[in-house]
Amino acid sequence: EVQLVESGGGLVQAGGSLRLSCAASGITHADYAIGWFRQAPGKERESISCVSNNGRHSYYTNSVKGRFTVTSDNAKNTVYLQMNSLKPEDTALYYCAANLMRRRCQPGAPQHEYAYWGQGTQVTVST
User: Fold this and answer.
1) With a cut of 70, which residues of the chain have pLDDT below it?
2) 103 Cβ contact list (under 8 Å, min separation 6)
């Protein structure tokens, strides 16, 4: 059974930091790209970052570029999203997902390429 489990969310003040984790089982990150997404209340789910299967390539949407960093530890089959300088507009449910069609990230890749999704972890940034 394939599972992606996010953790590390919580409540933080603006300007603070959080590190999200995405632990995979049943699949090997070394074979697939992993993406991070978020969905705020009343908004569509958006892609914010992605890391390639070997951890060497990544991309970020403009709103998080320079503040968020995605890394991967293939030995632990886990991907991390370090979030710094958090803003209230970063408040959302954050998901990781595995793209079984790609090893390298493709900005704008359709979400239907991501076959497996975690349950999400809530990030709330207060003013």
Assistant:
1) none
2) 31, 32, 33, 52, 53, 54
User: Using one digit for the tens of pLDDT, what is the confidence trace for 25-43?
Assistant: 999 888 899 999 999 999 9
Amino acid 28 reads T
* CB neighbour class for 87 (10 Å; exposed up to 12, middle 13-18, buried from 19): middle
CB 98 within 8 A of CB 4: yes
Q: Give the chain's length.
A: 127
Q: What is the DSSP letter of 67?
A: T
Cα angle 17-69-15, degrees, rounded to a multiple of 5: 25
43-to-33, 38, 98 alpha-carbon distances in Å = 25, 10, 22
CB-neighbour burial class of residue 25 (10 A; exposed 0-12, middle 13-18, buried 19+): exposed
Measured from the Cβ of residue 40, the count of other Cβ atoms closer than 10 Å reads: 14
